[in-house]
Design brief:
The protein is an alpha/beta fold. The chain has ten helices and five strands, in the order ααααααβαβαβαβαβ. Helix 1 packs across helix 5 and helix 8 packs parallel to helix 9.
Length: 245
Amino acid sequence: MTHPPLLINELERIRRERGWSVRELARRLGVSPKLFYNMRRGYRPLSVSTLSAVARDFGSDYRVREAVMHYLALEYPTFGRDILRNGPSTSELPDSISYHNRWRIVTWVGRLPFGEGVQRGLYLVATKPEALSAVSRFIVSAVERERLRAIAIAGNARLSTSHATAAADASVLVVERIDFATDTVASLLARRVDAHRPVVVTSCVDREAMPDGVLLRTLRAATELIRLDATSSDTEPVTLAPAAR
């Protein structure tokens, strides 16, 4: 799908008639200007929450209602097939990780481009560092394929001011081996959590065994726990979104 949905064209018509900027229309839809730009280019589908905002604010316009029905009946199914063909795959992750956990990781990455709200990050724990490294590489690569910015740093990194700023602003921050976290990295994580930006951390130590109580509370609040060594599903469920793939 390389052309804008008819619904976007109708929303653009309303925007011009009312003299709104693109930023103002995006705000009313509850999305960022960048995400609206990608929807307008046909790069991103409209999520359920966006369609709800359209119905709430513009549903009195019969042309908008018809465009919504056209989108749901014809355009979104085509986009969905493209997602399944081109999105990240569980086969890109090591076979040593259970399919359930590979699916959880792929689902998490797949939600990133469509999320108008905040989603929790991931706490990945395994006994073998090489498994953690493989998953970290996959997440960075998959995020960048979605035209988002991912930065990976070591838990014991000593960051320059510019590097810390870039890590704080990235779409996704991956911290490898959080069990060796420096005060600088712990502070960076807290900044991202406060700003509602997703983080992925890896560790050879279970989350509940983290010795730093402040960091433990931050990670509890901000991450879903995935034990990569587990052979069956973890007791902590992943939260699905309508656009998950």
